[in-house]
Amino acid sequence: MAKITKKEVGHVAKLARLELSEEEQEVFTKQLNSILTYVEKLNELDTKDIEPTSHVLPIQNIFKEDKIKESLPREKALSNAPDRTEEFYRVPKIIE
């Protein structure tokens, strides 16, 4: 059985730039070990005749057909712009 140690939890927390108290490290160590124990139980199942799948339900993408239609007129698109030129939105300068 793979075990996660408190030292390993502290190391991963450091890599993630997280400051964990001793109590938090203890809690996360127990939680991660519980997860690994559960995964080991799942590994005991015989799945050799089970076809691999990405989802438990048979789902397929349904795409809407593209239809060409008229664009919004420029004047209407710019009608509520707080600041604009004749043809474009005007936005504040970000880089100086």
Task: Describe the structure in your own words.
The chain is 38% helix and 0% strand. The protein contains three helices and no strands. It has helices at 6-15, 22-43, 74-77. It starts with 5 loop residues before the first helix and ends in a 19-residue tail after the last helix. The mean pLDDT is 89.
Helix content: 25-40%
Structural class: mainly alpha
- The beta-strand count equals 0
Instruction: Tell me the strand percentage band.
Output: under 5%
**Low-pLDDT windows of residues:** none
Mean pLDDT: 89
Could you give the distance between the termini?
Answer: 58 Å
Compute the gyration radius: what is it?
28 Å
Shape: flat
- Spell the H/E element sequence: HHH
Q: Strand count, sense and closure of the main sheet? A: none
Total helix count?
3
Topology summary:
Blueprint: H1 6-15, H2 22-43, H3 74-77
Would you summarize the structure shown here?
Helix content is 38%, strand content 0%. The longest helix has 22 residues, at 22-43.
Tag the structure with descriptive keywords.
96 residues; mainly alpha; 3 helices; 38% helix
